[in-house]
């Protein structure tokens, strides 16, 4: 698939306001600062695509991108929370919309979950994995900023996360990723192709 052709479609605050639930889409989730925008930008080879999602007012929205003109193939940027500066009531509201989306979106084929390789499996990540598990949704984990560790340490981190998620190995795949070094891009593309073309 031509990921370079990705372009912004629309933003939605709730499941009800999402575009038509037809075709196939893949969603990206991660705690704030996990490297989600950087990853989306290198995966689509566009410098500013995910900036759309960082526009003030859009950070709490579900942002949709189409692959070129084909509205039936979409990448979805889910709101990353973790910025503590919002009241708990707002956080709960985001959580509800996220859960709603993951639980009811029929066209959703898989979830890419991004975690900083140095701090994997945060509470946010566990929550997302729990929801995915309930739906038997397949998840592809990117251990991001792999360049921050020496190669041996990065491999150890990968093995460790793999063993911690062994009980979910049927649903979960994991790889190292670095937007900075453009490491792991082909592997992600192959996973996205699998989901979007099947
Ligand atoms: P988001 O909040 O999940 O969208 O995260 P960003 O993509 O904005 O990245 C958060 C911070 O991590 C920024 O300062 C990025 O420059 C940095 N970052 C993102 N990806 C990488 C990477 O692959 N390597 C390194 N060293 N830093 C990265």
TrEMBL record:
<comment type="similarity">
    <text>Belongs to the TRAFAC class TrmE-Era-EngA-EngB-Septin-like GTPase superfamily. EngB GTPase family.</text>
</comment>
<dbReference type="InterPro" id="IPR019987">
    <property type="entry name" value="GTP-bd_ribosome_bio_YsxC"/>
</dbReference>
<dbReference type="GO" id="GO:0005525">
    <property type="term" value="F:GTP binding"/>
</dbReference>
<dbReference type="InterPro" id="IPR006073">
    <property type="entry name" value="GTP-bd"/>
</dbReference>
<dbReference type="Pfam" id="PF01926">
    <property type="entry name" value="MMR_HSR1"/>
</dbReference>
<dbReference type="GO" id="GO:0005829">
    <property type="term" value="C:cytosol"/>
</dbReference>
<keyword id="KW-0717">Septation</keyword>
<keyword id="KW-0131">Cell cycle</keyword>
<keyword id="KW-0132">Cell division</keyword>
<feature type="domain" description="EngB-type G">
    <location>
        <begin position="22"/>
        <end position="198"/>
    </location>
</feature>
<keyword id="KW-0342">GTP-binding</keyword>
<keyword id="KW-0547">Nucleotide-binding</keyword>
<keyword id="KW-0479">Metal-binding</keyword>
<protein>
    <recommendedName>
        <fullName>Probable GTP-binding protein EngB</fullName>
    </recommendedName>
</protein>
<dbReference type="GO" id="GO:0000917">
    <property type="term" value="P:division septum assembly"/>
</dbReference>
<dbReference type="InterPro" id="IPR027417">
    <property type="entry name" value="P-loop_NTPase"/>
</dbReference>
<keyword id="KW-0460">Magnesium</keyword>
<dbReference type="GO" id="GO:0046872">
    <property type="term" value="F:metal ion binding"/>
</dbReference>
<dbReference type="InterPro" id="IPR030393">
    <property type="entry name" value="G_ENGB_dom"/>
</dbReference>
<comment type="function">
    <text>Necessary for normal cell division and for the maintenance of normal septation.</text>
</comment>
